[in-house]
Amino acid sequence: MAKLILSVDGQVLKEHTLSKERTLIGRKPHNDIQIDNLAVSGEHAAIITILNDSFVEDLGSTNGTMVNGKPIKKHFLQNNDVIEIGKHKLKYFNDQPAPAAGAADFEKTMIIRSPSKAPPAPAPAAPAPAPAPAPAAAATAAPAAAPAAASMSDTHPNMKTATQEAPKPAPAPAAPPPPRPAPAPAAAAPAAPADATAGGALRDAAVQVLSGAAAGRTLDLTKNLTTIGKPGLQVAVITKRPNGYFITHVEGATYPTLNGASLGAQAHPLNDHDLIEIAGVKMEFFYKP
Amino acid sequence: MNVAHSLQSASLTDPGRVRDHNEDCIEARPEIGLYVLADGMGGYNAGEVASGMATSLIADGLVESWQPDQVDRLDRDASKALSEKLIREQVARANSAIFTTSQNNPECAGMGTTLVVCHFYDNFLTVAHIGDSRLYRLRGETMEQVTRDHSLLQEQLDSGLITPEEAKLSQNKNLVTRALGIDPGVETELHIYDTQPDDVYLLCSDGLSDMVEDDEIRLTLITLKTNPSLTVQQLVQAANDNGGRDNISAMLIRVAEPYGVPRGWLARLKALFR
User: Fold this and answer.
1) Chain A window 7-46: which residues touch B at a Cβ cutoff of 8 Å?
2) Which residues of B, range 188-217, sit inside 8 Å of A by Cβ?
3) Which residue of A has its CA nearest to B32?
4) N or C: which end of chain A has fewer CB within 10 A?
């Protein structure tokens, strides 16, 4: 659950957990976070918390509210934001589970129902996970050992492609799902060349036209997808991915060639100074210096 | 004109790079222009039970009840009304089946699924959806999100509490306000749109729309639309390149040519000789 740490001149005064939908900050005693200082208005600001998100709103205070040094009326709080009220600072911490272990489960889609439709309390079999405030009954299923009925389990292969012609995939037996191999790129492309990335970032690259009317022209590969060729005749796409550049055939009865060999339907990694021939035009792929 | 000949389509579903199993499910019945996508939720295997039941029940139910040779005799408005009625019926039927299964099987308790159903007929498209799985449409250079998520985030956007920029940073992305199979009844949102030749429709689960920016989806659709199977591969690959934190599903349908139903004896006669 998110919290605020109140400090003045670097001295921590107190810590407040944002458990309520509306947390009031101000000088008067009825505030949830009372700051007894004349620079602070009676009711100065409010924090509105909706499940995992919080917003700070200035309540028309005399001296205003700042977030990270900027005056705000309303602000959507992010982890480590600093709210300033006069000389007092409130640092916002939203320590969601670390993006490692529990994250995948945490991000799973859940259903929240409006209080009118939801049962008054979550069913005992489905304890609400996560710090969900009262009205939202987040539904999860209790984990159980029995696998799903075979008729429904359609145990997914790692990747199933269903095109118009392909028959419906046969229902697989209710075996445990096969262990998933290392993340395979969708187009089953071989590993990218080693010189693609320098210091983690993908290097800039371009294609230079070597023959035909546009000979000498250079095309920078700045977009994630760049098409080359003649529409309706022969088109290929060069995709820019984190691990390098790849070329794939898009349309046309025959495939373009890469270093003299036909591309086929697969994606191919591009190496520095590779020669592409498409729609009768030769071009060269190269990494920019 | 047979709808299967006028629509080019391709689909792909992938577990992504984090989850060890796939709770998304897709079913296509090109012969009646039907495409169904569901993203299941609920512990253990229950999510894929729910999405698998939803897609297969709705697809099979519509194939059985939608008889093209009989529907072809109706006028266009009547066929629209029939498409709407049958989809509502099949969605309600799937809802009851999933709800009953979850009530009777403790390991399935609380399961549910999102849903997008697209039914193409006579140059129109019936769209039914529940939850945060989406339908996008590319027309010309413009891509629009056809469905509106049933999610907490969308409600906050609608009420002006947060801006679209802030929404990208929200921690509440994964909360849907409607799902199939969690209550005895379900409210299906349904709309009918006229289609145009060269329209491209993309059904997808949030594993795609959360991982790939709308603008990149748009660029991919524009660039690769002549090759639907490469388009869906590219979209799934982009989601995986960006982390692949959830299951990813994409179904792409391109309207290659009009698929109006010939009416009147002359039109029918002409259609015979096409």
Assistant:
1) none
2) 206, 216
3) A164
4) C
pLDDT at A89 > cutoff 90 = yes
CA–CA separation, B168 vs A198, rounded Å?
30
Contacts of B159 (CB under 8 A, 6+ apart): none
Strand partners, A228: A236
Question: Is pLDDT of A51 > 90?
Answer: no
Overall pTM surpassing 0.80 (yes/no): no
> Which pLDDT tens digit goes with each residue over A116-159?
444 443 344 434 344 433 333 333 333 333 333 333 333 333 33
CB of A101 less than 8 A from some CB of B: no
- Chain B partners of A147 at a C-beta cutoff of 8 Å? 45
Mean pLDDT split into 10-residue runs, chain B, 274 residues:
87 94 95 96 85 97 92 91 96 96 91 96 96 96 96 90 85 88 94 96 96 95 93 96 94 94 76 69
**Sequence letter at residue B220:** T
The pLDDT of residue A133 is 39
CA gap A248, A243 in Å, rounded:
15
Residue of A nearest to B224 (CA): A250
Contact residues for B104 (Cβ-Cβ < 8 A; gap 6+): none
Angle between helix axes B214-224 and B228-241 (nearest 10 degrees) is: 150
CA distances from A167 to A161, A164, A171, A260, B30 (A): 10, 8, 12, 35, 11
Place of tokens 């009009």: B258
How far is A65 from A23, CA to CA, in rounded Å? 15
DSSP element (H, E) containing B47: helix B46-65
Pick from B8, B14, B115 the residue to mutate for testing the A interface (most A CBs within 10 Å): B14
Instruction: List the structure tokens of A254.
Output: 């025959």
The full length of chain A comes to 289
Could you read off the pLDDT of A222-249 as tens digits, one per residue? 999 999 999 889 999 999 999 899 999 9
Which of the residues B174, B217, B218, B220 would you substitute to probe the A interface, choosing the one with the greatest number of A C-beta atoms within 10 Å? B174
Looking at the complex, does the CB of residue A153 fall below 8 Å from at least one CB of chain B? yes
Q: What is the ipTM of this complex?
A: 0.82
Give the model's pLDDT for residue A119: 44
**How far, in Å, are A49, A78, B61, B162, B260 from residue A68 at the CA level?**
19, 11, 57, 19, 59
Q: Tell me which residue in A143, A168, A225 faces B219 most closely, judged by beta carbons.
A: A225
CA A8 to chain centre: 36
CB of B111 within 8 Å of any CB in chain A? Answer: yes
The mean per-residue pLDDT over the stretch A203-227 comes to 91
Which residue does chain B place closest to A1, by CA atoms? B171
Quote the crossing angle between the two packed helices B46-65 and B76-104, to the nearest 10°. Answer: 150
A199 CA: distance to closest CA in chain B (Å): 18
Sort B265 into a burial class: Cβ within 10 Å, 0-12 / 13-18 / 19+: exposed
How many CA atoms are closer than 13 Å to the CA of A144, on its beta-carbon side?
A: 20
CB contact under 8 A, A109 and B176: yes
